[in-house]
Amino acid sequence: MTCNAVIGAETSDETNSVFSCRINFILLLSSSAGVFFLVAVARCTLRHMFRKNVTTLLIFCSNSGRSNLHRVIGVSFGLLCVLQAALNICLRLIIYPYFHQGWFHFQKSLYYISSVKNTWHLSREYCLQEGADLAIINSRAEQAFLENFKMTLWIGLMEQRSERTWRWVDGTPLTEGAAYWSLGEPNNYEGRQEQCVEQIDREDKKGWNDLVCEFSNFYMCEKRIFP
């Protein structure tokens, strides 16, 4: 591939779109003027390099060949490092304060374990007030994370009586491949209307259990920080 082709590929509309999406996402995360400034500088520099100064780069590259191409690549990596540093600062500002408030970080979310018991609906109300919701379990890894607490906790799963289906608090239906029911559950024990779900941790029983929503339990909130 020629030098011109390399630069042309780097400055395509698709590449600009990718950079724009990534940078806008970082800007969305920024909650401090200092971080915003760092990201803004990186954004302006990239825009200058890939949009406003394309002609200069093409001439620069075609006149001197590979050595100048290497310099261009080096500058590109340098700019990516600036973006990475800005992202790291963003994450520190966003995530770290929660650690002092009892939140835990796992994969793309922050989690909170309550220190008091409440009904399912009041538990959810508290989570919503904190900008979160009752936990949604999307994978075996997330279920293992939940089990590590060795507590009985409300999670964000509820039966929709009108549909006779289980749905998460975000409206998505429960799928069989991602259901971690305890043996024999759900069962509407003794004919009770058990529409809410707890993660249970007992010597004789572990996993999900359907339960009357008005019973009191500890609960787990989940705050999504990445899409």
Automatic annotation (TrEMBL):
The chain crosses the membrane at residues 23-42, 72-99. Keywords: Disulfide bond, Lectin, Membrane, Transmembrane, Transmembrane helix. Residues 106-222 form the C-type lectin domain. CDD domains: CLECT_DC-SIGN_like (cd03590). GO terms for molecular function: carbohydrate binding. The keyword rRNA-binding does not apply. Pfam families: Lectin_C. It comes from Takifugu rubripes (Japanese pufferfish). InterPro entries: C-type_lectin-like, C-type_lectin-like/link_sf, C-type_lectin/snaclec_domain, C-type_lectin_CS, CD209-like_CTLD, CTDL_fold. SMART domains: CLECT. This is C-type lectin domain-containing protein.
